[in-house]
Amino acid sequence: MTETRLIYSSRTTNWPLLAAGVTGAVALMLIGRPWAVPWPGLLVPLAVVLGTLIVSLVTTSSLRVTTGPRGVLIRCGVFGWPRCAYPRERISGVEIVTVSIWRTGSSGISWSPRGGWAFVLRSGPALRLTLSNGRRVTVGVSDPQAALAALGPDAARTAGQQH
């Protein structure tokens, strides 16, 4: 008889960030007027700013999280890069938390000495993983109960012990 395995997968896209990025790029093009100054003029700085904006939007505008018996896999951006994998063996505890991008002041991928890595695109529920080395990783998910259940009963027990 085969064993049934539960897999949770969620994708979050930060549409307001995408709209702000496109609006900002158009505003830079119109305000900078690189065509009105001698070559290279504002063209080079404008290209650097636009390139940075595009890379930022492509890598931090969406988040795909997959949890299952093997652990947690996080893929960021349009192309799934950067990608972070946390095998189940490295996860010593999981808890459900509520995050606020307004309180932390960051959306996307961030790191802080107290909070560790955070992959959060919106305020709301998230999973906070405690790794076997003591580091923490916070991941925004749409349905934290389902994500926790997909990690298996051991994860749910450790989550209950941490509160």
Would you give an account of this structure?
The chain has 163 residues and is an alpha+beta fold. It has 2 domains: 12-58; 63-162, no CATH class. The chain is 35% helix and 34% strand. It is built from 5 helices and 9 strands; from the N terminus they run βααββββαββββαα. The strands form 2 sheets. A 5-stranded mixed beta sheet has the order 5-8-9-7-6. A 4-stranded antiparallel beta sheet has the order 1-2-3-4. Helix 1 runs antiparallel to helix 2.
Structural features:
alpha+beta; 5-stranded mixed β-sheet; single chain; 163 residues; elongated
Set out the fold topology.
Layout: E1 8-13, H1 15-32, H2 43-60, E2 62-68, E3 71-76, E4 83-87, E5 91-99, H3 101-104, E6 108-112, E7 116-120, E8 124-131, E9 136-140, H4 144-150, H5 153-162
Parallel strand pairs: 7-9
Antiparallel strand pairs: 1-2, 2-3, 3-4, 5-8, 6-7, 8-9
Helix pairs in contact: 1-2
The shape is: elongated
Structural class per helix/strand content? Answer: alpha+beta
Oligomeric grouping of the chains? single chain
Low-confidence stretches: none
Approximately what portion of the residues adopt beta-strand conformation? Answer: 25-35%
Largest sheet, order of strands side by side?
Answer: 5-8-9-7-6
Radius of gyration: 20 Å
List the helices and strands in order. Answer: EHHEEEEHEEEEHH
Distance between the termini: 36 Å
Helix content: 25-40%
Q: Write down the domain tally.
A: 2
Q: What is the mean predicted local confidence, pLDDT? A: 82
Number of helices in the DSSP assignment: 5
* Major sheet characteristics: 5 strands, mixed
Q: Work out the number of β strands.
A: 9
